[in-house]
Specification:
The chain contains 16 helices and eleven strands. With 382 residues, it is α/β, with parallel strands linked by helices. The protein starts with 5 loop residues before the first helix and ends in an 11-residue tail after the last strand. The relative contact order is 0.10. Bound molecules: iron/sulfur cluster. Iron/sulfur cluster (SF4) binds at residues 46-49, 52-54, 64-65, 68, 105-107, 114, 116. Residues 46-49, 52-54, 64-65, 68, 105-107, 114, 116 line the site of iron/sulfur cluster.
Length: 382
């Protein structure tokens, strides 16, 4: 385990951020790396619980107490091996995961939990820096060919697992570059795209083939896939927009997050000449939706130079601490303030939009909203 008395002596520490002023100037990641000593100290806080709830809270079942211990003792290579045993791409999860492991950490019952996600990210970054993440092609090929449709996180992980099993894998991606939602949904300030490219290079060296601008069912026929491959794995993401079916939803100025974020990610990637630019520059922006996607739209709007950014959330404002009905180790619905929120936004809760108002030119000029109250029937969980 970590240091026996570590959790009593050492306080939780997480990565610091660059100033808001600096980070709004570009789309780069803005975390300030922790020193090795600080990371070891954080590993030392782990109690190596008999029943490690962190591990069951992690959807991947990451072997968290094991890698915490390796980090505490400075055994980074072993930590990387343990981490990769359950996690194909810790460089993505270490940046993007909401960290349910930390909400279920036993230390979190009465103290701040172990900073597991930061440790995870630093293990894999050390592994890349030291050259430990190298291609490991299978020793034996089965002769079977598998088509993987979609190159988002699930497509990439599926491809790596099938390739490791010895099958010949080809990944089909409808967009111009590999990564799916990682590339086109997540802004660069949370995940710089070189991080995806770095991993894809390893996958290619392992023997996986990627075919981009291959839209299965459109320019790539399903029959071809059926004829050319022994199996097909469907790993497409849910890019279907969730619109608000209310009056005025067609007005100029009402934009779907998936279109806004995708275009901006393409712009950051150097692509220009869009049919229509979707920009928040010099506009008063209202972001509807208080989740991660809404937060990404807030961060992007501020970087584009919006005049003001306001956020509407339909649910009531949660408490800062754990609500009584979501005790440890459950995931709590509590007030979360993201780095994007801290960059500038006015947040409103319990707001439902009933109508988008337009002028005679079809431009959005306002929103009609109501304040809502959530009433739960007896026995219903909030
Ligand atoms: S629950 Fe927390 S303290 Fe316990 S093993 Fe996991 S990370 Fe360590």
């Amino acid at each position: 385990m970590g240091k026996i008395t570590g959790f009593l002596e050492i306080e939780r520490q997480v990565e610091a951020y660059d100033t808001v002023e600096n980070r709004l100037k570009n789309y780069k990641e803005f975390t300030i790396p922790m020193k090795e000593k600080a990371l070891k100290d954080q590993g030392a806080r782990c109690m190596d619980c008999g029943v490690p709830f962190c591990q069951s809270g992690c959807p991947l079942g990451n072997l968290i107490p094991d890698f915490n211990d390796h980090v505490y003792k400075g055994r980074w290579k072993e930590a990387a091996k343990v981490l990769h045993a359950t996690n194909n791409f810790p460089e993505f999860t270490g940046r993007l995961c909401p960290a349910p492991c930390e909400e279920s950490c036993v230390l979190g019952i009465n103290e701040d939990p172990v900073s597991i996600e930061n440790i995870e990210k630093n293990i894999v970054e050390t592994a890349f820096k030291e050259g430990w993440v190298i291609a490991k092609p299978p020793k034996v090929r089965t002769g079977k060919k598998v088509a993987v449709v979609g190159s988002g996180p699930s497509g990439l992980a599926t491809a790596q697992q099938l390739n490791r099993a010895g099958h010949l894998v080809t990944v089909f991606e409808r967009d111009a570059k590999v990564g799916g939602l990682l590339r086109y949904g997540i802004p660069d300030f949370k995940l710089e795209k070189e991080i995806i490219a770095r991993r894809v290079r390893v996958l290619e060296e392992e023997g996986i083939q990627f075919k981009t601008e291959a839209y299965v069912g459109k320019n790539t026929s399903v029959e071809t896939l059926k004829n050319d491959f022994d199996a097909i794995a469907l790993c497409g993401g849910a890019t279907v927009r969730r619109g608000i079916p209310i009056k005025g939803a067609h007005l100029k100025g009402v934009v779907q997050a998936m279109d806004f974020l995708k275009q901006n990610n393409q712009r950051v990637d150097g692509i220009t000449g869009f049919k229509e630019d979707i920009l928040a520059t010099d506009k008063n922006v209202i972001v509807i939706g208080g989740g991660d996607t809404g937060s990404d739209c807030i961060g992007t709007s501020n970087r584009q130079g919006a005049k003001s950014v306001t956020n509407f959330e339909i649910l009531s404002k949660p408490s800062k601490g754990r609500p009584a009905h979501q005790p440890w180790p459950y995931w709590p619905m509590r007030l979360r303030t993201s780095s994007s929120h801290k960059e500038g936004v006015e947040r409103f809760f319990s707001i439902s939009t009933k109508e988008f108002l337009g002028n005679k030119n079809g431009d959005l000029i306002g929103l009609k909203t109501v304040e809502v109250e959530w009433i739960f029937k007896k026995g219903e969980r909030r």
